[in-house]
Amino acid sequence: MERFAQGEIKILICTNIVESGLDIQNANTIIIQDVQQFGLAQLYQLRGRVGRTDKEAHAYLFYPDKSLLSDQALERLVALEECRELGQGFQLAERDMGIRGFGTIFGEQQTGDVGNVGIDLFFEMLFESLSKVEEHRVISVPYQSVQMDININPHLPSEYINNLENPMEIINEAEKAAERDIWSLMQFTENLRRQYGKEPYSMEILLKKLYVRRMAADLGITKIFSSGKMVGMKTNMTKKVFKLIMDSMVSDVHRNSLDLVGDQIKAELLLELPREQLLNWIFQCLAELHASLPALIKY
């Protein structure tokens, strides 16, 4: 192969292995034997092995008598002949899809028989299937849209502030990390502890507020509020999604206290908690809900 690429050998006899992206710019002619045994995508790739430069190229496709070819083999040859201009790969793929069929969208079969149902009916079935997927999907919301109606604003101790190089910049970085995603916030927390040691309790409260908003955004929750012993979370979850998450939760502590009423997830606590303990309860609750999200990936 190296000698052929370098021009030392003028003719190369090989299998269809050369379809896998080889770029031999000196090659300007290819002869393919028994083309009826290849798929349309294979023939397209094989034909593309020549004409890689400005040299005129030729592709010769040989097959037995047409009477011996199947209808699909004949269709493939016609498609190749008609889609021979530069940039017609997509049209050829469409022709291939029409010849082989689409297969099952959510199954293992890779080819189907679209001719039996027709393209219009197929897409109707496709959109129906996608609508079912949508019903089982958690739709996240922007981080900045999450509201927390819980009045808690901790004050950092002066000795901790003095220990920080630039307190306001660090707090802004924490907010930006939370806005990106949960993993960025976790990485920020780890780096903060590595550089300045374990944070004081007031800083922990501040970080928990960020975690609560970030997890709420991922869960499609736009507002968190409390009234007496009741905690409410406004969400875009459907009942099916809520049930799936509840069934996936490992602990019964929060699962037994949560209920979806309309567009709100509600929980009735045993007693009215102080603000800091309430924030901790919400944090633990959302952490369990968030941990159950991977169970929905298969949908």
From TrEMBL:
Q: Which stretches make up the Helicase C-terminal domain?
A: 1-98
Keyword list, A-Z: ATP-binding, Helicase, Hydrolase, Nucleotide-binding
Please list the GO biological process terms of this entry: DNA repair
Q: Does the keyword ATP-binding apply?
A: yes
Cite the GO molecular-function annotations of the record.
Answer: ATP binding; helicase activity; hydrolase activity
Q: State whether keyword Hydrolase applies.
A: yes
- This protein's source sits in the domain of life called Eukaryota
List the Pfam families: Helicase_C, TRCF
The name this protein goes by in its record: Helicase C-terminal domain-containing protein
Organism classification: Eukaryota, Viridiplantae, Streptophyta, Embryophyta, Tracheophyta
